[in-house]
Amino acid sequence: MEMAIRKLPDNLIKLIAAGEVIDSLVAVVRELVENSLDAKADRIFVSIYPETWNLQVADNGEGITQEDLPLTIQPHATSKINNTNDLINIHTLGFRGEALHSIAQLAQINISSRVTNDCGWEIMAENAQLQHIYPKPSAVGTIVRVNDLFGNMPVRRQVNPPFKQQLKKIQILLGEFALCHPHITWQLLVNERLIFSISRSNSADKILPQLLKTIHYSDLKTIKKAIDTPYEKSISHLELVLGLPDRISRPRPDWVKIGINGRIIKCPELESAIYSSFHRTLERDRFPVAFLHLQTSPRQIDWNRHPAKAEIFLDNIEFWQEQIKDTIAEIFKLTDNNISQKWENKRVENILKLAENKSIYHLETPEIKEREKSPEENIGLIDLQVIAQARNTYIVAEHSQGIWLIEQHIAHERIIYEQLQNQWEIVALENPIILDKLLPKQIEQLNNIGLEIETFGEDLWALRAIPKILLNRDDSLSAIMELSYGGDLNSAQVAIACRSAIRNGEKLTIKQMQNIVDNWKITKNPHTCPHGRPIYLSLEESSLYRFFRRHWVLGKSHGIEEKRHKPPLP
């Protein structure tokens, strides 16, 4: 044990007192699990007996000595801080010394524990008063049993939600701890029946598919990076697990999790950085799957914002917002190390049958201009070589690990949309476009997106400036009318990009397709179009071999040099 448990001085109590409220089974589990994590346990088992309001949390942590056991139920007694200097350098989840004391006031509590090279001991307390202490054989670690919770406060039992709701919250709680502490094995039992378990791993991306069964490991991308903290001479560590937008999304904004120094917290500023990075990458009313874990200097965090430490004050929040956005941009890049390699395609023969020209675009084929790209734009990006066009809709490109089908319209749409975002250019018209019978909302909308419009007579208006991309186009009038019914500037840019992109069903040359692919792969969000549809389908070499039931050793009978691949298929 690094520090013995001791009673805190009054001046320190005044600085950290949070009025710990144990109001539910969830709160008890949270506090006891945090203690287990602070004790460096790697196995934590939670058992609940709802009919009797009993629960138990067992761990294999460092344990508590015989001398310290009676102090655990005293108010403001903790081994985790000692003075005011420790308060700005907190490395543990608990530090106030309130939790066990608060629980002991509301239930009968038994704590049995053993440290290495000593025998086990157990205490029993009721109404926060020590009743007994005696030897108890046990393994190294701690077991806390809480019996008859709220037995002395029946009103609190009555206002608690139904057990099923509390059980769901407990499962969410344990899942969030598991993301921050993936090296731990977790089990949750109700009336001795296992209902929830998480196997340990070395990273959070192996934990997340255990929590969301619809997610496959290959749907996720992870970046772990060390960051020099500019405002303090220290190294912070950022881990980001992201669901690829063309693979997975949620119908509700319920799976963006922010972890700070081992605990999931609510931080609207960091959450907004994640959501803004997904702008125009997901379908309407769909939300990302993301887990962010930031481990930074405790001197930058104030945990005293919320009694349950669910909210914090984090210094230099703008710096971390930019770091998150940059990290997400790294994940979105199409690099050799960042492409999806395990998306199985069991119905490859049906792919081309879906390539029907069902979409109608009212625009002549735009000129596909070749843009000179800077060397920095192509550093580390996957090398995609166009080899064909399928159904005049899909660009077929190969790379070192397989083949991709890229839908030409939405890939080009993504290119144009980001170009419009970067340079929204309005140009004056030599001859104005005359519009008639506009509604007041349409006039307001055209003004909002920066178009110059003025009255030209009864029920007539003159448009004297338009987006440059619509200049000299036969369909500019219908495009303007379409924009007048839109929403904000961003919606207008999406509409223009969709209208301006190359049509499906249009035959392209290899050079034109290569230019589209080269410009598309350097976009910020190449996985989906601005409407959230996936742009490409990955047909990896291993999946093709599996589908065609090829042998993993290709002999000379095939007319190629024999080479041995990875282990044969089962």
Description of the structure:
With 570 residues, the protein is an alpha+beta fold. Helices cover 26% and strands 25% of the residues. The protein has 15 helices and 26 strands. The strands form 7 sheets. It has an 8-stranded mixed beta sheet, covered by helices on one side. Strands 11-12-15-13-14 form a 5-stranded mixed beta sheet. A 4-stranded antiparallel beta sheet has the order 18-19-20-24. β13 (256-260) and β14 form a beta hairpin. α2 (25-38) packs parallel to α5, α7 (268-277) runs parallel beside α8 (317-332) and α10 (408-422) packs across α13 (489-500). The radius of gyration is 30 Å and the shape is elongated. The protein starts with 5 loop residues before the first strand and ends in a 6-residue tail after the last strand. The model is unreliable at 14-20, 341-365, 552-557 and 560-566 (pLDDT under 50).
